Amino acid sequence: MDIINSVSEMQHRCLTERQAGRTISFVPTMGFLHQGHLSLLEEGRKRGDVLVLSIFVNPTQFGQGEDFEDYPRDLKQDCTYAEQAGVDIVFAPDAKQMYPSVYATYVDVERLTESLCGASRPGHFRGVCTVVNKLFNIVQPHVSLFGCKDFQQLAVIRQMVIDLNMPVEIVGMPIVREADGLAMSSRNVYLTPEQRQQGLSLSAVLRQSAAQASGGERNAQALIDNARQQIEALPEARIDYLKICHQNSLQDVSEVDENAVMLLAVFFGQTRLIDNLYLLQ
User: Fold this and answer.
1) Which of these, 55, 87, 149, 167, has the minimum number of CB atoms within 10 Å of its CB?
2) Is residue 124 annotated as part of the catalytic site, yes or no?
């Protein structure tokens, strides 16, 4: 496994691989890998001749007062996991490589970024789209894999790829959960034992809402009200958003159908957890 830090070296290597007729599959991450990331790498290994993993904590997607400085990092451990997963190349640039002092170009995707995480984290998706665009230009992948836990992010990246005519297949992979049901996240390490126990309620509330929808309750507001009541009963929970949206437009829906997704973001202390579930699939 090769570890490359230089943007120019990485781009040259990937262009050489493409010219040799090899297919590149790519998993972009901010590191501190967990089983969710490893599931992306496992699928990526199947889909390409060359598997590339990027590890870069992207400063432009963190807002003021967010956890950029404290975001968990362990490059040595990540590289061990990556090698075990069959990664061919780890791309681990620093911020000066990705954003030189004269950097002045950013990518905005409109409409899809106006609600949910986009509403509570202004500028977040501008940073996400910019860095993913840059990574695609550097790595030149044929296929790139993303987790469905970040549902809005996946929708936004798919829109960007369509709008900018990028020759990259975007693959969304299922949420990977801890044995107790908590959606895997690098930020789970921030949770106290009490907060983690309360956080388990989020997946339980989603499953209960899906059961109610399958049982005939199709009024979105009724489902939201019931879910909100349960979450607000948790001592340390603070709801950022709780919505039922159309899977493609991310617009609120009033009646639940096969396209309806319940999405939530809830703070436990300073830790923000996100999760989602299709209600009728």
Assistant:
1) 167
2) no
